[in-house]
Amino acid sequence: MATAHIKSNKEDIAKVVLMPGDPLRAKYIAEKYLENVKLVNDVRNIYAYTGTYKGRKITVFSSGMGNPSVGIYSYELFKFYDVDYIIRIGTAGAYSKELNVMDLLVVTNCYSESSYAKELYGGQSSIATASSEIVQTIKETAYTQEKVLKYGRVHCSDAFYSENIDIKELVNEYGCLAVEMESFALFNNAKLLNKNAGCILTISNSLVTNEETTSEQREKGLDEMIVLALESGIKLL
User: Fold this and answer.
1) Domain boundaries, the chain
2) At what angle do helices 23-33 and 223-236 cross, to 10 degrees?
3) Which H/E stretch holds residue 83?
4) 8 A C-beta contact, residue 65 and residue 10
5) Tens digit of pLDDT for each residue in 109-125?
6) pLDDT > 80? residue 166
7) Is the pLDDT at 51 greater than 90, yes or no?
8) d(CA 14, CA 18)
9) Computed from CA positions of residues 128, 19, 224, 93, in that sequence, does the dihedral angle turn out positive or negative?
10) Cβ partners under 8 Å of residue 143, min gap 6
11) Which ranges in 65-158 belong to alpha helices (H)?
């Protein structure tokens, strides 16, 4: 089986998928954490790998950047590859003083100005919600690992460079703690297709303090989030 963007056979894709944006981060995760790894997609250099983690089959599938890109891959995985759970693992910029660089944020829901939901199925809401099952599983997993997590709403923006952004409004009126670019499409695909989607983010920079991580840190320094997602993922199987 293949789609317009994925060349994998259906049996090559696990029921649980971890979805980083960066294809090189997918490669890093697969090589460091998975056993019996197989490259199952490289169309358009969107790398995907399937292997086992603690004996359980899991796929790491990169999404590219932005709602349209993650929208394509998560839709095809849910619709045509019978994936049940997708956990996005990415980075975000903090809007709030409550978040420090390298904090872990579990997204409960997101606010977006994007028209993705309207184009997808006529959806009118600017809020999209994560799967409660995934959020609860991550919470329980973090507790056993003694990890401190933050939970809340993020702003899912279609524009990385925006000259029309009002952070105070996004914080005070919409309750957004941070900004990223993929959760809105992912959550809406899951809603439409009766699947489950979640999102864990590492705070890579702060729009409050202007502190930033390097590109190398973002590619290879996110192991705390990665392990949390892997451990949570195998509990969902």
Assistant:
1) 10-236
2) 70
3) none
4) no
5) 999 999 999 999 999 99
6) yes
7) yes
8) 10
9) negative
10) none
11) 67-80, 116-121, 132-145
Number of H helices, E strands in the chain: 8, 10
Q: Choose the CATH number for 10-236 among 3.40.50.1580, 3.30.300.30, 3.30.390.30, 3.20.20.140.
A: 3.40.50.1580
Reported as type and span, the H/E element at residue 200 is strand 196-206
Tokens of 12: 């090559």
- Average confidence score pLDDT of the chain: 96
Q: Encoding tokens for residue 143?
A: 């507790």
Helix, strand or coil, per DSSP, at residue 43: helix
Across-strand partners of 91?
202
Strands 35-41 and 48-53: antiparallel
pLDDT for 82 equals: 98
Q: What is the mean pLDDT of residues 70-97?
A: 98
Percent of the chain with pLDDT over 90: 95
Distance, in Å, from the CA atom of 83 to the CA atom of 57, rounded to the nearest integer, reads: 12
Residue 24 clears pLDDT 80, i.e. is over it: yes
| CB contact at 8 A, 207 and 197 | no
CB 233 within 8 A of CB 18: yes
Residue 216: pLDDT band with limits 50, 70, 90: confident
The predicted pLDDT at position 213 comes to: 85
**Separation CA 93–CA 101 (nearest Å):** 9
What is the structure's pLDDT at 26?
A: 97
